[in-house]
Design goal:
two-stranded antiparallel sheet; single chain; about 55% helix; 3 helices; about 5% strand
Length: about 90
């Protein structure tokens, strides 16, 4: 069994120092990263969708939920990007 730790999103942002990068570079990185993830997701074997991640806080999340939840989460960020004034 593979155990993957969770992560602290605020700490991730701090360590990556996104606040020191131009907004256009962050958006370009986000776009390319998500194009790559979309390509990976499009080739997921449907038989693997029931595979479960046992989270550090005791939740069991299957791959299908993780993929769908990621899309919802990214739509939230896309809405933020589209609302932000372009610099």
């Amino acid at each position: 069994m593979l155990n993957l730790p969770g992560y602290d999103g605020d700490e991730w942002v701090r360590v990556q120092r996104y606040q020191d990068r131009p907004w256009s570079e962050i958006v370009a990185l986000w776009q390319m990263y998500n194009v790559q993830l979309a390509a990976v997701i499009s080739h997921v074997d449907p038989k693997t969708l029931p595979n479960v991640w046992h989270t550090p806080d005791g939740k069991d999340l299957d791959l299908e939920f993780i993929i769908r939840d990621y899309v919802v989460h990214m739509r939230h960020h896309l809405d933020q990007i589209l609302e932000r004034p372009q610099a």
